[in-house]
Amino acid sequence: MFSLEIQTLIKHLSKLPGLGPRSGRRAALYLIKKRSEFLKPLAEALLSVHAAIKTCTLCHNLDTKDPCSLCEDPKRDTSLLCVVEEVSDLWAIERTDSFKGRYHVLGGVLSALDGITPEDLMIASLLKRIENSLKTEQPIQEVIIALNATLEGQTTAHYLMDALSKYPITVSRLAHGVPMGGELDYLDEGTLSLALKSRRPL
Ligand SMILES: [Zn+2]
Predict the structure, then answer these.
(1) In what order do the strands lie in the sheet with 170-173?
(2) CA angle, 195 as apex, 141 and 175 as ends, to 5°?
(3) How many A from CA of 48 to the centre of ligand 1?
(4) pTM of this prediction?
(5) CA of 54 to the centre of ligand 1 (A)
(6) In sequence order, what E strands does the chain have?
(7) For a Cys-Cys bond, which of 2, 42, 54, 76 suits 66, CB 3.0-4.6 Å?
(8) Comparing C-alpha atoms, which of 50, 79, 107 is closest to residue 42?
């Protein structure tokens, strides 16, 4: 029914989050119909992002430079470090405009079911980062654990609290507003902002 090129396009589009084969076909047809004003700029944007994207070696955020713009920004408070699961959570917190510290992206959460162990996450680099900062004039003073309120997120939070207890820092976590099973990226800005503001020491 479709040529190989169109089939390949549909196959790739179907794999995007939230899409399936049906929406993949719809998106492909839309792109093909709007090939000059939309398909070509999209193809160019994809290639340029692919060429430019970098993972920040400090916080593991995705940006076009390393260290990323957030790590490089002199206006950000270096004493506050917010630990998140994924870059989407970092983006969600940035949208609230209520956090002016820095981030650390774990790249996932512990999961016995999926075989995700501490070694698979950016935990060693988090501890190293804290240790290094404690030797400087601007040490990290508070780590905010902002993980999803899922079973895996909470297991990971407990693991981190344990690992961080040996450092002379305050460890806090998000409080009110994050429902059980809730994912940060799906919360509205107000709820997430309140959760961040009402964080409490453990
Ligand atoms: Zn960074």
Answers:
(1) 102-105, 80-84, 142-145, 170-173, 200-201
(2) 75
(3) 20
(4) 0.78
(5) 10
(6) 54-55, 62-63, 80-84, 102-105, 142-145, 170-173, 200-201
(7) 54
(8) 50
Distance 61 CA to ligand 1 centre (A): 5
Cβ–Cβ under 8 Å, residues 106 and 156: yes
Give residue 103 CA to ligand 1 midpoint distance, Å.
Answer: 7
CA–centroid distance, 29 to ligand 1, in Å, is 38
Give the three-state DSSP class for 142. strand
What residues have CB less than 8 Å from 176, skipping those under 6 apart? 194, 195, 198
CA–CA separation, 6 vs 74, rounded Å? 47
* Ligand 1 centre distance from Cα of residue 65 (Å): 9
184 SS3 class: helix
DSSP state of 165: T
Size (the chain), residues: 202
C-alpha of residue 73 to centroid of ligand 1, in Å: 10
What separation, in Å, do the N-terminal and C-terminal C-alpha atoms of the chain show?
A: 60
Q: How far is CA 7 from CA 11, 23, 166, in A?
A: 6, 13, 55
pLDDT digits (tens, 9 = 90+) for 112-162: 999 999 999 999 999 999 999 999 999 999 999 999 878 899 899 999 999
HSE-CB of 87 using CA atoms within 13 angstroms: 10
**pLDDT tens string 162-189:** 999 999 999 998 876 677 777 888 887 8
Instruction: Indicate the residue type of 135.
Output: K
* Encoded amino acid at 55, one letter: T
